[in-house]
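Budget justification aside, the reviewers requested a transparent look at the raw inputs and outputs of the sequence design task funded under Objective 1. We therefore reproduce one unedited record. The lines immediately below are the structure tokens for a 282-residue chain.
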């Protein structure tokens, strides 16, 4: 009678023991990772507290770049960053928001420069025109944002936009009036030599826009326009086909100059550039 040999390999008890060891090892590693993470957080927190209280990171200066000295001092005051505050914990976002609220500020960035300096980089709005809507003229930029009162509205300094029916918003807000915005679009679309010759705009409405040009110093087809009046009104209307209107205007001015006659012109109407009209004075 033959007997069966015992099966080879691990027994059930040995497999259970091995599994328990694996579980215990995994639990040990998990607890160790948690302990190390917790210890790391403690180290970081202690370091952060130490840095936040260290006199090495106390702010000693606030530098303002991009604007003149007087404006720079105003930016420092508005930012509200004081000497002695900690460079790491000072709230730059709040300071940026305060400076950005200045109506003449277009962009602002604040940077920490260890160990003890904050730099404020300001991009100021550039006045493009002076809008007169009522009594006080106001400077506005290319986007139509009201910057400040134009207390130095000398002739030729900034082109003037007369828009007596417009209602201007508070400084720092863009003008919504369509007549004023149309005048800005026209001004930006003019070629540089015509843009530099602009004296003022009459903007009662979008289709009624006129521009007054200073002809002294302006040349058309290489000719000085000395036979024409020193100033002339041009009715441009809406800011459409400005390249065509500008080309027609310069060609027409050259033709009028070649006539070499004392022609008194009340207005040139270019609202339909394919059919320009020269309106003489009555």
């Amino acid at each position: 009678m033959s007997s069966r040999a015992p099966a080879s390999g691990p027994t059930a008890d040995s497999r259970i023991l091995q599994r328990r060891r694996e579980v215990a090892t995994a639990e040990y590693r998990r607890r160790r990772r948690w302990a190390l993470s917790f210890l790391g957080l403690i180290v970081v927190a202690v370091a952060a507290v130490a840095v936040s209280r260290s006199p090495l990171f106390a702010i000693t200066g606030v530098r303002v770049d991009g604007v003149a000295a007087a404006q720079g001092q105003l930016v420092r005051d508005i930012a509200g960053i004081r000497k002695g505050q900690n460079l790491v914990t000072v709230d730059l976002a709040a300071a940026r928001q305060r400076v950005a609220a200045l109506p003449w500020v277009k962009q602002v960035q604040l940077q920490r420069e260890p160990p003890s300096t904050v730099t404020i980089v300001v991009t100021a709005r550039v006045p493009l025109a002076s809008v007169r809507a009522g009594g006080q003229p106001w400077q506005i930029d290319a986007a139509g944002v009201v910057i400040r009162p134009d207390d130095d509205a000398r002739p030729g300094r900034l082109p003037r936009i007369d828009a007596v029916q417009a209602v201007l918003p508070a400084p720092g807000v863009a003008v919504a009036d369509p007549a004023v915005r149309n005048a800005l679009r026209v001004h930006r679309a003019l070629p540089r030599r015509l843009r530099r010759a602009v004296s003022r705009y009459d903007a009662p409405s979008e289709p009624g826009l006129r521009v007054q040009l200073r002809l002294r110093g302006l040349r058309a087809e290489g000719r000085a326009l000395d036979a024409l009046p020193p100033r002339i009104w041009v009715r441009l209307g809406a800011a459409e086909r400005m390249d065509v209107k500008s080309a027609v205007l310069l060609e027409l001015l050259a033709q009028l100059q070649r006539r070499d006659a004392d022609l008194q012109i009340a207005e040139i109407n270019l609202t339909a550039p394919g059919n320009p009209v020269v309106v003489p004075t009555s």
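The first strand starts at residue 61 and ends at 65. The first helix runs from residue 12 to 53. Computational costs for records of this kind are itemized in the attached budget.
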